[in-house]
Amino acid sequence: MIYTIILIVVILYFVSLIVRDIGSNPLAEADSTEPPAQTDFVPKTLCKFNGKDDPKVYLAIEGVVFDVTAGKGFYGPGGPYENFAGRDASRGLALNSFDPAVLTSLDEPLDTLEGLSTEERESLLNWKSHFGNKYTVVGTLSNP
Ligand code: HEM
């Protein structure tokens, strides 16, 4: 009899653990949260997200804006790729160049990426997929 009671207590204990685990299922929590807000940027509204004027760092690739704040060491002030912060980084990534002169000035229409070679387009695609796997998309970049 005593063994039956112990067995029931042990079973109830494990059932309670399982129920608690289901209750704290991160997927269940993710389902109940809203998707991150998306913003429509133009070059002059994106440029403040450079880690200085705003602590967040964003950059755009082919019109898709990524939150790269987690990579602030790369893109934040003094980082090796800070030229991309708050900017359309497409041509720089295509050309594997961090020369700021490669990027379109904020007053000009967005770079249409005309004249890129097949290899340069491929390089850009690879970078875009790298950013897509690592960072969150927070909006789009288009002309004013
Ligand atoms: C001078 C030669 C270069 C060296 C030694 C170098 C080194 C590195 C290293 C060590 C990483 C980190 C990789 C990781 O752990 O994920 C990295 C990432 C990166 N590099 Fe370079 N790099 C060089 C040139 C360039 C150039 C010319 C560009 C211009 C487009 C560039 C753009 C990037 C970007 C965008 C990342 C990804 C950072 C991220 O994941 O957010 N690199 N580089």
From TrEMBL:
Has the keyword Heme been applied to this entry? yes
Output the Gene3D superfamilies linked to this UniProt entry. Cytochrome b5-like heme/steroid binding domain
The Cytochrome b5 heme-binding domain is annotated at 41-142
Known InterPro entries for this protein? Answer: Cyt_B5-like_heme/steroid-bd, Cyt_B5-like_heme/steroid_sf, MAPR/NEUFC/NENF-like
Indicate whether Heme appears among the record's keywords: yes
State what protein this is by name: Cytochrome b5 heme-binding domain-containing protein
Which GO cellular component does the record give, naming just one? membrane
The entry's family comment says: Belongs to the cytochrome b5 family. MAPR subfamily.
Q: Which coarse location class describes where this protein primarily resides?
A: endoplasmic reticulum
What keywords would UniProt list here? Endoplasmic reticulum, Heme, Iron, Metal-binding
Which GO molecular function terms does the record list? heme binding; metal ion binding
The family database entries (Pfam families) matched by this protein are listed as: Cyt-b5 (PF00173)
Q: Where in the cell is it found?
A: Endoplasmic reticulum
- From which organism does this entry originate? Australozyma saopauloensis
Signal sequence, renumbered to the chain: none
